[in-house]
Design a protein that fits this description.
single chain, 402 residues, alpha+beta, seven-stranded antiparallel beta sheet, 16 strands, globular
């Protein structure tokens, strides 16, 4: 995926916002049609049937005919995929998550097919710049912060809004299939233990990424912005709904969350690049993050009340896990490893923090403290996270050999 910043004029920004609103209306109308057809007549309407109605809709609604026919098909296809995922979760016994209506503030992207309603070109532009012609909007300036692969064939394109209001950021996201560009082999393998005190710990130090003990610092972007976010959200709660003041305050909250998200993504990508350049094989824990951040179940005391279940402490841990962005980091490492031709091995995380990397003795008493490990069998002492990283590397090497 290649994502580039758009720089629309004020008139183009209004047109892009109107485009999102029109596609949001189409999405909600299609969802309402499906709901009514099933509730009143027990009929299930498919995505292809709704796409066949687009010609009549565009003839009756000139404001919908302004926009690309293909982009409207993509919007209806997105709704169809949402229903397909809903029925899949129902059959699997998972939480269904029925498709919801979208407000104009929450409908932030429109999909296109390159050459049909949208076209990216660099002809006549200075290096590092391009233009994006969008049907109904005009020609928008694009900043190419990195070059597109030579000879790449453009396919699916997404125009995306981040935030809302006049200070919203606009992006174009381009899906390009590129081949791997293998790096030279290093002959090294590294195990990575994700953490909270440190972002992660590696089985061996990596110059420029970790300290001498293999610890990568955790920047805690969310905690750094917590006070500003709290003040902005408190101000938002005091604003009258529908007022311009509330709209401006909501935009400020959105910008702060966007800043944290971009900082977290930047940290993950830089760490992933350093890991991929350092080692041929990267071993990660196969974590079930959804289960790890689940709130503890209440414990009835049999008298109409509840026993302490550690929910407050668990909430703090969940907040730290979210702030560390483990999922973002894992996805970044996997993506960079695929590009560089490196090998990723996922291992079972069970007992990696309790097992002695020296003798293999596994017991909970080995973990003396959060940062201290001392084996009760052989007396081996080490940093707990580094010991876990060594166990992860050993498990990955064994799995690869097997």
């Amino acid at each position: 995926m290649y994502s580039f910043r758009l720089y629309p004029t004020s008139r183009q920004r209004d047109a892009l916002t109107a485009m999102l609103a029109a596609h949001c209306e189409l999405h909600n109308a299609a969802l309402q049609e499906r709901r009514d057809a099933y509730r009143k007549a027990g009929v299930t309407i498919r995505g292809a049937q709704q796409m066949a109605q687009l010609t009549d809709i565009r003839a009756a609604r000139p404001d919908q005919a302004v926009w690309s026919f293909t982009s409207q098909q993509q919007t209806l296809r997105r709704l169809d995929k949402a229903f397909a995922a809903f029925f899949r979760r129902v059959k699997a016994g998972e939480k269904p998550g029925y498709p919801r209506f979208r407000s104009a503030h929450r409908f932030d992207s429109v999909g296109f097919r390159h050459g049909d309603g949208i076209k990216l070109t660099t002809e006549g532009c200075t290096p590092g710049h391009a233009t994006l012609r969008v049907q109904g909007v005009g020609t928008v300036k694009v900043r190419l912060h990195r070059p597109l692969p030579g000879g790449a064939k453009l396919g699916q394109i997404l125009v995306k809004r981040e935030g809302s209001g006049p200070r919203a950021r606009w992006h174009v996201v381009i899906a390009i299939e590129v081949g791997a560009a293998p790096l030279l082999p290093t002959g090294r393998a590294v195990g990575v233990d994700l953490g909270v005190a440190h972002l992660f710990t590696t089985s061996e130090p990596i110059p420029g990424l970790t300290d001498g003990n293999g610890h990568a610092p955790n920047p805690r972007h969310g905690l750094t912005a917590a006070d500003r976010l709290a003040r902005a959200q408190q101000a938002l709660s005091l604003c009258k709904r529908g007022s311009s003041r509330r709209s401006k305050t909501r935009d400020r909250v959105t910008r702060l969350y966007g800043l944290v998200r971009r900082q977290r993504l930047d940290t993950a990508r830089k760490a992933a690049v350093a890991l991929v350049r350092h080692a041929d094989m990267i071993v990660l824990e196969d974590l079930r993050l959804t289960n790890m951040i689940r709130r503890p179940k209440p414990k009835p005391d049999g008298k109409g009340g509840f026993l302490p279940n550690g929910a407050a402490a668990k909430a703090g841990l969940n907040r730290s896990i979210h702030d560390a962005g483990w999922g973002v980091l894992i996805n970044a490492v996997v993506a960079k490893a695929e590009e560089a031709g490196r090998e990723i091995v996922l291992v079972n995380p069970a007992h990696t923090s309790r097992r002695c990397a020296q003798c293999g003795h596994t017991v909970a008493d080995n973990r003396v403290a959060q940062a201290r490990f001392q084996c009760v069998a052989c007396g081996h002492a080490d940093n707990a996270d580094r010991n876990a990283a060594l166990n992860i590397l050993r498990a990955g090497t064994a799995r690869r050999s097997a």
